């Protein structure tokens, strides 16, 4: 029908790059600080995201641990790197005349593999279910993870790959 489906807002690479950097800054504490604290009958346990992944990889749940490492640590980190690299280039700070197609390919095709938002939904369900049996207290790692996921989703929503590609081509005079 010849209707334009994207472009309702202007892509602002400076603002989105700042959000990407903020997400990266929050990502490390989200990985290493405790996600939640569980208290039951005098037992007190807390674990970070990396603790959970590493403990799953030690035992019989090795495939689940590898899947969590891939979808909760590696792919979000790769998405942050690719978004940051492309937004840096869109700001006009690229040494070459053309943006690197490798980073655009990663940004286009790997966004679906970062499952941090699904993980947060799982944490919410677990906290709700465990709330009847024990005292569950959210930890600082959970706060950092929630904010990092929200910032990442904002960046990915506002920096659509096609719109970013058009901006990069326009900045490079193609």
What is this entry, summarized?
This protein is mainly alpha-helical. 65% of the residues lie in helices and 10% in strands.
Would you write up a description of this structure?
The chain is mainly α and 174 residues long. The chain contains 7 helices and 3 strands. The protein has a 3-stranded antiparallel sheet with strand order 2-1-3. Strand 1 and strand 2 form a beta hairpin. Helix 3 (62-90) crosses helix 4 (101-109) and helix 3 packs parallel to helix 7 (161-171). The longest helix has 29 residues, at 62-90. The radius of gyration is 19 Å and the shape is elongated. The chain starts with 12 loop residues before the first helix and ends with a helix.
Major beta sheet summary: 3 strands, antiparallel
Overall average residue pLDDT:
81
* Global morphology: elongated
- Cα distance, first to last residue? 27 Å
What's the total count of β strands?
3
Could you list some keywords that capture this structure?
single chain; mainly alpha; 10% strand
Describe the protein's topology.
Layout lengths: L12 H20 L1 E7 L2 E6 H10 L3 H29 L10 H9 L6 H15 L4 E4 L1 H19 L2 H11 L3
Antiparallel strand pairs: 1-2, 1-3
Helix pairs in contact: 1-3, 1-6, 2-3, 3-4, 3-7
């Amino acid at each position: 029908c010849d209707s334009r489906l994207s472009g309702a807002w202007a892509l602002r690479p400076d603002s989105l790059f700042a959000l990407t950097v903020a997400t990266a800054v929050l990502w490390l504490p989200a990985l290493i600080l405790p996600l939640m604290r569980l208290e039951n009958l005098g037992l007190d346990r807390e674990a970070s995201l990396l603790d959970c992944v590493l403990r799953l990889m030690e035992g019989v749940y090795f495939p689940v641990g590898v899947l969590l490492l891939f979808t909760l640590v590696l792919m979000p980190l790769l998405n942050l790197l690719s978004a940051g690299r492309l937004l840096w280039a869109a700001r006009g700070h690229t040494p070459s005349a053309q943006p690197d197609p490798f980073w655009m390919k990663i940004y286009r095709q790997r966004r679906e593999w970062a499952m941090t938002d699904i993980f947060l939904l799982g944490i919410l369900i677990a906290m709700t279910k465990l709330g009847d049996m024990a005292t569950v207290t959210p930890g600082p790692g959970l706060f950092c993870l929630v904010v990092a996921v929200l910032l990442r989703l904002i960046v990915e929503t506002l920096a659509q790959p096609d719109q970013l590609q058009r901006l990069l081509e326009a900045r490079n005079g193609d």
